[in-house]
Every structure is written in C-alpha cells, then in structure tokens.
Amino acid sequence: MKVSASFLSSQDIVRDLVKLNETDVDYIHVDIMDGKFVKNKTMPFREMKHIYKYTSKRLDVHLMVEDPASYVPLYAGLNTEFITFHVEVDKNIEECLKLIKSYSIKTGLSIKPNTNVRELVPYLPLVDMILVMSVEPGEGGQEFIEETKEKIEEIRTLLDTYQCSAVISVDGGVNDKTKSLCSKADVLVAGSYIINDDNFQEKISSLR
Ligand code: DX5
Ligand code: ZN
Asked: Which of these, 177, 207, 176, lies nearest to 23 by C-alpha position?
C-alpha cells in the first residue's frame, strides 16, 4: 500500500514537511480549497509555493475548487505526480483532464461520499487515479464513513469492467483501524493520524 501524507491539519507545515522527508512516505498530499467548492479556504499559491521548497517528496495535489483548470498551470510547475479535482465540478471535465495531461502530469478524479460511481465512467480513459472521499471534503480530522468500503469495491469492479488501470486512493479519516476497510485501494491518504503523532514513520508503516 502506498501512503500519501496530508498536512492540512498541521500547526507548523515547514517543520512537518522536513520531518516527512526523513520517512518513506510516498507523496505529500496537498489539499487546496477555494472557499466555494468547499467552505474553507487554503492559503493562496504565492504563499504556498515557498512551503513546497521544504519537501523532497512528490506532490499529490487535491483540488477542492470550483475552477480546477486555473490551478493546473501553477501546480504543474512543482514536483507534482498527480493533480486531482472533483467529478462534481460544473466545468468541462474532459478538457481539464487533457490540460493536466498536457503537462505530463498524472490525472486524478475525486468523488464525494454521496456521488454515484457511474459519474466516473465517461472519464475513465483519461484518468490515472480515482480519489475516493471517505469523509465530506473540506476539513481534516473527520471520522471515516464506513460505507466507503463498498464504494471502493464498486469502483474496483468498474475499473476492471472498463479495463482502466487507474489506481484507487482513499482520503479522509484513514488510520490503523479504518485501513482494513480500504484493502481494495492502492494508496491511502492520511492527515491527522500521521501529523498528530511524534513518530511519523511508525504511523506511516502501520498503514502499509
Ligand atoms: C479532506 C481532505 C483530506 C484531509 C485528510 O477534505 O481532502 O485530505 O486533510 O485528513 P484526515 O486524515 O485528518 O482526515
Ligand atoms: Zn485531500
């Protein structure tokens, strides 16, 4: 299992990113919120871009925004492996996936807990990752929604049916207890479970 660490709940982002450099975590999960798609808002890119200098890990960018295309060129200029946005946005999804690909960056589509997995189908040929939300997007530290287990299984079946090789990542409320509900996933995103402990590596290892 791969692990992506979210620093959304961090009290000292630079310190925690430096600490994460010393671990074997696979990605740094970057949560971006615009105050419209979700009610919280994260720092603007011009402030955030200084912070990314402190990580040696590849970025797994999660855009919880209404207009993902306007963020793509900014995050494409960093050490980014994935740019993910939501299938619920009222924009041209295919165009935005193609825009991400034009920067040779892997594409991700995220799905909220109450959205039907069929919504993903038209985009599967262009998608490298499905980010399954196991909480309502918008803040860290929430409880894992147990029905996500069935949702991950449904998405696995969908990917097999449509012969899509996208990886499945699960985001929200992931810890050593809830990971057993994610056995069909490929990547686990964890924020508070890792960040709220002194020993980051121990927490990361417990998720693998
Ligand atoms: C929620 C974010 C998550 C969150 C994960 O909207 O997308 O990435 O930060 O944090 P935890 O692991 O604390 O739920
Ligand atoms: Zn996230």
From this structure: 207
Classify 114 as helix, strand or coil. Answer: coil
CA angle 78–89–134, rounded 5-degree value: 80
DSSP letter string, 67-96: -GGGTHHHHHTSSEEEEEEETTSSS-HHHH
- Asked whether the beta carbons of 32 and 80 are under 8 A apart, the reply is no
The Cα–Cα gap between 24 and 70 comes to: 32
State whether the beta carbon of 97 lies less than 6 angstroms from ligand 1: no
The whole-angstrom separation of Cα 208 and Cα 196 is 18
Q: Is 128 among the residues known to form the active site?
A: no
pLDDT > 90? residue 130: yes
The verdict on the CB of residue 174 being under 6 Å from ligand 1 is: yes
pLDDT, one tens digit per residue, over 170-203 is 999 999 999 999 999 999 999 999 999 999 999 9
Q: Which of 50, 9, 5 lies closest to 27, judged by CA?
A: 5
133 CA: nearest ligand 1 atom: 7
Q: What is the CATH number of domain 2-207?
A: 3.20.20.70
Coil, helix or strand at residue 63: strand
